[in-house]
Specification:
This protein has 315 residues and is α+β, with helices and mostly antiparallel strands. The protein has a three-stranded antiparallel beta sheet, covered by helices on one side. Strands 6-8-7 form a three-stranded antiparallel beta sheet. The chain has a two-stranded antiparallel ribbon with strand order 4-5. It is globular and about 55 Å long. The termini are far apart. The chain binds zinc ion (ZN). The site of zinc ion (ZN) has 5 residues, from strand 6.
């Protein structure tokens, strides 16, 4: 009887093998499923392992997607963003990529998108620029004077958060950083300029060159000259470069201003001495004669336009 039972069990065992083998064959696709065997822990382990292992995989790809349609790699910032980080090292605390977009965090903790993603006409790029708009145009360093095409205004747009962090947030804060820089005119004069971000040092370097110019060019250096003035740009609500202590206006007899031209048609030539323009541009100042809406006695310290990435046509 016992033998008969054993024989029966053996027979069942033989029959069971193919069945188990059958189960064993299917584990292929269900490879993770057999994991539950450690039944005691099964309740937690399988849930955690496959659960977490699979979920991150999907979002990781989702995150990679949008990034790849900006520059090539996620850790590669837009070229022109480096113009700002190089020119304003103390004002910019960090730069970060998130969800395919780039953000700049400033010294005071404010975070600003590099690109706000809005389509703008040329007027809105001036009145409400994002950081990218402010350095989108090439500034033609050291080029000969040439009429400027409509829409070409490199440097006319200033981002208020960047400038507040570089030179002071509000009139009092800007004033706290102003220093008097002696000006090389026949009559004693000085210029109030910001000591922040290397601005006053750059102006002193310009002045060293201006002091050597021939008399013909030097007549443009005679007072009256204007520098710091906490004011908005005429006809707008935007602060001018003068409000940050980084701009200087030379003698009006050597300059031209677009609002004085009737009808406004752009500038064909300028009375500003080329040697003066060269001296300023050599030290990181832009000239208002490079703007379609020109202001040719205006010079402004804007080192971002002289960074290699902003001297390249590539956006
Ligand atoms: Zn000016």
């Amino acid at each position: 009887m016992v033998r008969a039972l054993l024989a029966l069990l053996a027979l069942l065992g033989l029959l069971a093998l193919p069945l188990l083998a059958g189960c064993g064959a299917s584990p292929g696709p269900l490879a993770e499923v057999p994991a539950p065997p450690p039944d005691g822990v099964g309740g937690e382990v399988p849930r955690q392992v496959p659960g977490e292992a699979e979920v991150p995989a999907a979002p990781a790809e989702v995150v990679d997607g949008p990034v790849s349609d900006t520059p090539p790699a996620e850790n590669e910032a837009p070229q022109r963003l480096s113009c700002l980080t190089a020119a304003y090292p103390d004002a910019i605390r960090s730069v970060e990529a998130r969800g395919g977009a780039w953000f700049v965090t400033f010294r005071d903790g404010r975070e600003v998108p590099w690109d706000d993603g809005r389509d703008k006409d040329s007027e809105t790029r001036l009145t409400d620029p994002d950081l990218e708009d402010t350095v989108a145009q090439l500034y033609p360093v050291a080029g000969p004077f040439a009429p400027v095409a409509e829409g070409d205004e490199p440097g006319r747009a200033r981002h208020p958060v960047l400038f507040a962090n570089a030179y002071g947030d509000g009139e009092r804060a800007v004033r706290a950083h102003l220093v008097d820089v002696p000006w090389p005119s026949a009559a004693p004069a000085s210029v109030r300029f910001s000591s922040e971000n290397g601005a006053a040092d750059a102006l002193r370097a310009v002045i060293a060159t201006l002091s050597e110019l021939p008399a013909e060019a030097r007549r443009c250096l005679e007072p009256p000259i204007g520098s710091f003035s906490y004011r908005q740009i005429r006809g707008t609500e935007r602060l001018s470069g003068h409000a940050y202590g980084i701009a200087i206006d030379l003698n009006v007899s050597c300059g031209e201003y677009w609002r004085w031209q009737r009808p406004f048609r752009g500038l064909e030539d300028s009375r500003m001495a080329k040697a003066i323009v060269d001296a300023f541009e050599a030290e990181g100042f832009i000239w208002g004669g490079r703007w379609h809406h020109y202001d040719t006695f205006h010079f402004e310290y804007r080192p971002e336009f002289f960074a290699p990435a902003c001297q390249s046509e590539e956006p």
